[in-house]
Write a structure and sequence with these properties.
This protein is an alpha/beta fold. The chain has 14 helices and 21 strands. About 0% of the residues have low confidence. Bound molecules: cytidine-5'-triphosphate.
Length: about 400
């Protein structure tokens, strides 16, 4: 194998999609430049090879030495510093993606007009790699017609944007102008890379996640221990393979991953309605949610009070609809079976009942598997009788294993 094909095979593995990717990071002169240190560090931790280029103005806010120490590579500021003729475009030639974070209004103006007064804009002009821009500036500069026109020009040219975010700005004012947070920038980068090379480009994948909470009265509910992590990890994995992803989520305490359309629901009735809409013409439906099988039949309008001498309280439960069994088609249909015993028998019985292509079964009482963990150990039962057992994997890697099988069925 050549050095390049060696590198290709090491790129973007199923545990870490940035492993071995060459990410050029451009930093321009905004107070938010200090946050680029965290981004460079997190990219490196994710396995990327990070090469930093900075404008002279950026060095007023953060030193090249900081970035050099974090990335283990020389940082280029002066385009005339290198002796070799081609040196100033080498970073551009090598990059798998170019991220400019933070990008000032001046940087956007130069990018829009193809001007190259510094190493950041020069690298943008000299690369064929996808470009992701995280703007940071005063909100009035962002909203100015000149900046908005530049953004429009860049978008039309295929440049991806992440942010700016709303919030408190360096000037003390509130508004849109904050640079996106590191996880959002990395999410946007993964989405961009997925759209270039993923095997789910042009596909719509619908994922459900989390529990449902069925009200007893305005303050109490019947619920379960699902945290939504498995479904969120599948949604991220699908995004990273280029899919358009809709995530229908029960009440969970998780941030929405960048680039994913999230629909929040609370009850089974709401989840069913949301999925009926989302699955029209979808390519795959992956039901990782844990919908409640029963709901209080008559939720009280007001908070229930305990009476004098009450030792017991009875709640009548009515059966909820089975969402999977109710939903028509939905492309490739994948279910989950969370069990604490007789895993295989229970899981296999759900395949025909819910019209599934395959079901992902896990023993939620086993160590490292099930609710709230970062890992899962699953067995996949297929409708044609095949059974596949997997080792303990991160939920993100389980997501990719599921999507490999979805892709094979599309
Ligand atoms: N499911 C569903 N609608 C429900 C309950 C479950 O669509 N009302 C889906 C789940 O999202 C999962 C699969 O069906 O993909 C199996 O869920 P599980 O709770 O394991 O099975 P149940 O069908 O509820 O059966 P039981 O509770 O008896 O195990």
């Amino acid at each position: 194998m050549t050095a390049d094909s060696n590198r290709q095979s090491a790129i973007g593995n199923r545990q870490s999609p940035l492993a071995g990717r060459r990410i050029a990071l451009g930093i321009t002169g905004s107070i938010a430049a200090y946050k680029a240190a965290d981004l460079a560090s997190k990219l490196r931790q994710a396995g990327a090879e990070v090469e930093v280029v900075m404008t002279p103005a950026a060095t007023q806010f953060i030193t090249p030495l900081t970035l050099q120490s974090l990335t283990g590579r020389a940082v280029v500021v002066d385009m005339f510093a290198a002796a070799e003729a081609e040196a100033h475009v080498e970073v551009a030639r090598r990059a798998d993606a170019f991220v400019i974070a933070p990008a000032t209004a001046d940087c956007l103006a130069n990018l829009a007009h193809g001007q190259t007064p510094d190493m950041v804009t020069l690298t943008a002009l000299a690369t064929t790699a996808p470009l992701l821009v995280a703007p940071a500036m005063d909100n009035q500069m962002w909203e100015h017609a000149a900046t908005q026109a530049n953004v429009e020009t860049l978008r039309a040219r295929g440049v991806a944007f992440v942010g700016p975010m709303e919030g408190r700005l360096a000037t003390g004012r509130m508004g849109a102008g904050r640079v996106a947070e590191t996880p959002q920038i990395i999410g946007a980068l993964l989405a961009l890379l997925g759209q270039r090379t993923g095997d789910l480009v042009g596909r719509h994948v619908v994922v459900s996640a989390g529990p449902t909470l069925e009200p007893i009265d305005p303050v109490r509910y019947v619920g379960n221990r699902s945290t939504g992590r498995m479904g969120f990890a599948i949604a991220e994995a699908a995004r990273d393979r280029g899919a358009r992803v809709t995530l229908v989520a029960g009440p969970v305490a998780l941030e929405t991953p960048w680039g994913i359309t999230r629909v929040d629901v609370s009850t089974v009735a709401e989840m069913l309605a949301a999925l009926q809409q989302a699955t029209v013409a979808c390519d795959a439906l992956i039901m990782a949610a844990a919908p409640a099988d029963f709901r209080p039949s008559k939720p009280a309008d007001h908070k229930l009070k305990k009476g004098e001498g009450d030792e017991e309280m009875h709640v009548h439960l009515a059966k909820n609809p089975d969402i999977l069994a109710t939903l028509p088609a939905g492309g490739v249909r994948v279910g989950f079976a969370a069990e604490t015993r007789n895993l295989g028998d229970y899981a296999k019985a759900k395949l025909p009942a819910k019209r599934l292509h395959f079901i992902v079964a896990n023993d939620v009482s086993a160590a490292g598997s099930g609710f709230g963990t970062e890992t899962n150990q699953v067995t996949i039962f297929h409708d044609d009788g095949r059974v596949e057992e997997f080792p303990l994997l991160s939920k993100y890697a389980v997501g990719h294993a599921i999507l490999d099988r979805v892709v094979a069925r599309l």
